[in-house]
Write a structure and sequence with these properties.
This protein is an alpha/beta fold. It folds into 2 domains: about 140 residues, Response regulator (Rossmann fold), CATH 3.40.50; about 70 residues, Orthogonal Bundle (Arc Repressor Mutant, subunit A), CATH 1.10.10.10. It has 10 helices and 6 strands, in the order βαβαβαβαβαβααααα. The protein is globular, with a radius of gyration of 18 Å. About 35% of the residues are buried.
Length: about 220
């Protein structure tokens, strides 16, 4: 696993690099700003990018903008975004790009090394790793969202495997059904969760967010 780290705080940046290298992971480059990060992505062609949301020069959304651009340049690049606190608009902007291999964690999770490494590996493997606090704020509603109750047990099984980052073929193999059956279940899931086709958000990611929020609520 080849990793690039984009973080303007030198202590956190070097600490992350030391932690990952101690786990025998290949940190090929680190960057202190968005420009350096994108240059590192172009030069080193990493498998995973760990990116801070707020970076120089304005410390607003440079990290998210750079992460979206990096994914445009390398669609197979897995991205794990770190933030000091939940930034709902930025999380939505990144997740709306869709695709696999996306994560959004609060920086406090880094101190929980096992959780952080689990999330990193999940994202690198094409899965989704969203901080429970981010999920809660992204999907907060004035009343409980009961749409997941519309799903059949099999549809919920399919959605759970989607949340693990599995594609349709892998889900079919895990559940011992055909690819066509999985595709039919997913279409039904989208319909029951009121997720029509749109250019603004990836329905698969949105469905997974609903599932993760429900798991967090029940925990």
């Amino acid at each position: 696993m080849r990793i690039v780290i984009a973080e303007d705080d030198p202590l956190l940046r070097e600490g992350l690099a030391l932690l990952l290298r101690a786990e025998a992971l290949d940190v090929v480059a680190t960057a202190a700003d968005a420009v350096g990060f994108l240059e590192a992505v172009d030069v080193h062609e990493p498998d995973v990018a760990i990116v801070d949301v707020r970076m120089p020069p304005t410390h607003t959304d440079e990290g998210i903008v750079a992460a979206v651009e990096a994914r445009r340049r390398r669609p197979d690049l897995a991205v794990l975004v770190l933030s000091a606190y939940v930034e709902q608009a930025f999380a939505t902007e990144l997740l709306a790009q869709g695709g696999s291999g996306l994560g959004y964690l609060l920086k406090e999770r880094v101190g929980r090394v096992e959780e952080f490494l689990t999330a990193l590996h999940r994202v690198a493997d094409g899965g989704t790793a969203i901080d429970p606090d981010v999920v809660a704020q992204l999907l907060t509603r004035s009343r409980p969202d009961t749409r997941l109750e519309r799903l059949s047990p099999r549809e919920r099984d399919v959605l759970a495997l989607m949340a693990e980052g599995l594609g349709n073929a892998a889900i079919a193999e895990r559940l011992f059904v055909t690819d066509g059956a999985v595709h039919k279940h997913i279409r039904s899931i989208f319909a029951k969760l009121d997720l029509p086709p749109t250019d603004r958000a990836d329905r698969r990611v949105t469905a997974v967010l609903h599932y993760l929020q429900d798991v967090h609520r029940r925990a």
